[in-house]
UniProtKB/TrEMBL annotation:
Record-annotated membrane-spanning stretches: none
Protein name: PQQ-dependent sugar dehydrogenase
Top-level taxon in the UniProt lineage: Bacteria
Domain Secretion system C-terminal sorting: 395-463
């Protein structure tokens, strides 16, 4: 794996940032077990926040449905607008949707977005890769990796996720063409898997096809756990919103099955078509959206569970995982006063960031909407709380010359090499349990290798000869 170079980040643009040197005022607090979680606003006056991704540059990457892609400074709330897409069609539920970053971002500064556009008078969907320039603060050189997917003003998906194996998942809705969800020749109603250059992985379930799973109605949440398990959230019709455990090649039933295989016709279809039942469902529907995994000591009662942003019911749900991740326990709801919640991400410090979606035509926006909310345990002391949760890792050879290998116990969220003065000289986002460090260009001496994962943070010395 190639190394990543750190970049000097300069620039800032609008959206009512909060003061850099003061703690944002609390909007509310709520208990999670014995922990008090404080809610504050990081950025305001946004428009239908669709995606929030914690980047390897330690900034939040954001999409807004009308077409703007931005970076948000988590320390100040400053929003740096990078690009407003020139051909996006933000009508109804369509527009700019999911975003993902290349796992070796500093040497391959690629930003992947999925959005709706109009071609020959018809609404379509495409996956596009942009190249980011930190110096210029721009996204340029758009490359369409997958396009001309049928779309409507609803049921377009679409969430993006880079897996630990370095491939990219993209969810698509059925575009109101329900039978296409069962048609593996169609890209609608699917979770698709591509290589990061847009090619089709050789080990996909259907040879030569990007289809990874099928039988989906409108999946809008997607997350991979450190053990490799995949989960998605999916909108049902007037019943049976779902949380699914995603397994390659499986059929998820739609439109022949709504929720569980609990009707006679559904049971027959499920038995004949390799249908994977959901882990849990909601009737009446709640409109589940962004999904993430929380395993940080800052909020202990959320550890090892899923967090789900909910639109219709305007809540944040904690979903505990049980039976080795094969079941979801009883959910608990939080935050009922901020309106529709769509986007969610977690920082390495255990803070949860939520994007509201009150300007999407279905909410009741207040003057400061839409917002990025921060949920945090302000009493948490990282150094003390993490002392017993340091992820042990190995570096070999050590001393090293041109390269070294880092062996990790779990997939890390971030890895950095710094000199003894604290200057970061290499950063990367590991994609597996073994990561090669390219040490070419570094002077001989002693360096610190720091690894962050959901288990905590650990540092080891590396001697370069």
């Amino acid at each position: 794996m190639k190394h990543l170079r750190s970049a000097t980040l300069v620039f800032w643009a609008a959206a009512l940032p909060l003061a850099a040197c003061s703690q944002a005022p609390a909007l509310t607090t709520f208990p999670v077990g014995a922990t008090t979680v404080t809610v504050s606003a990081l950025a305001t006056n946004l428009n239908t926040v669709w995606e929030l991704v914690w980047g390897p540059d330690n900034y939040i990457w954001m999409t807004e449905r009308y077409g703007r892609i931005s970076r948000v400074d988590p320390a100040t709330g400053q929003v740096q607008a990078l690009l407003t897409l020139p051909d996006v069609t933000p009508t109804g539920e369509s527009g700019l949707l999911g975003l993902a970053l290349h796992p070796q971002f500093a040497i391959s500064p690629y930003v992947y977005v999925v959005y709706n556009y109009t071609a020959s008078g018809a609404l379509r969907e495409k996956l596009v890769r942009y190249t980011y320039s930190a110096a210029a603060g721009t996204l340029t050189a758009p490359l369409v990796l997958l396009g001309n997917i049928d779309a409507t003003t609803s049921h377009s998906g679409s969430r993006l996720l880079v897996l630990a194996d370095g491939t990219l998942l993209m969810t698509t809705g059925d575009a109101q063409q329900q039978p296409q969800a069962q048609n593996t020749a169609s890209l609608n109603g699917k979770i698709l898997r591509l290589n990061l250059d847009g090619s089709i992985p050789a080990n996909n379930s259907i040879a030569g096809s990007p289809v990874y799973t099928f039988g989906h109605r409108n999946p809008q949440g997607l997350v991979q756990l450190p053990d490799g398990s995949l989960y998605s959230s999916e909108h049902g019709p007037a019943n049976d919103d779902e949380i699914n455990k995603i397994e390659p090649g499986r059929n998820y039933g739609w439109p022949n099955v709504e929720g569980y295989c609990n009707l006679a016709a559904e049971a027959t279809f499920c038995a004949a078509n390799n249908v994977r039942e959901p882990l849990t469902t909601w009737t009446p529907t709640i409109a589940p959206a962004g999904l993430t995994y929380y395993n940080h000591p800052a909020i202990p009662d959320w550890r090892g569970g899923l967090l789900l942003a909910v639109l219709k019911n305007a809540t944040l749900l904690h979903l505990p995982l049980a039976a080795g991740g094969q079941a979801v326990g009883t959910s608990t709801g939080y935050l009922s006063t901020f309106g529709r919640l769509r986007a969610i991400c977690v920082s390495p410090q255990g803070k949860v960031y939520l994007g509201t979606s009150n300007r999407d035509g279905r909410g009741a926006p207040v003057a400061t909407d839409d917002r990025i909310l921060v949920l945090e345990n302000r009493a948490y002391v990282p150094s003390a709380a993490r002392a017993e949760n340091k992820p042990a890792f190995d570096i070999f050879p050590n001393p090293a010359r041109r390269q070294a290998t880092v062996r990790l116990p779990v997939v890390a969220t971030h890895l950095a090499i710094s000199d003894l003065a604290g200057h970061v000289v290499r950063t990367l986002q590991p994609a597996g349990l073994e990561t090669e460090l390219d040490l070419n260009g570094l002077r001989a001496g002693t360096y610190l290798v720091q690894v962050e994962s959901h288990a905590g943070r650990a540092t080891r010395k590396l001697v370069l000869e």
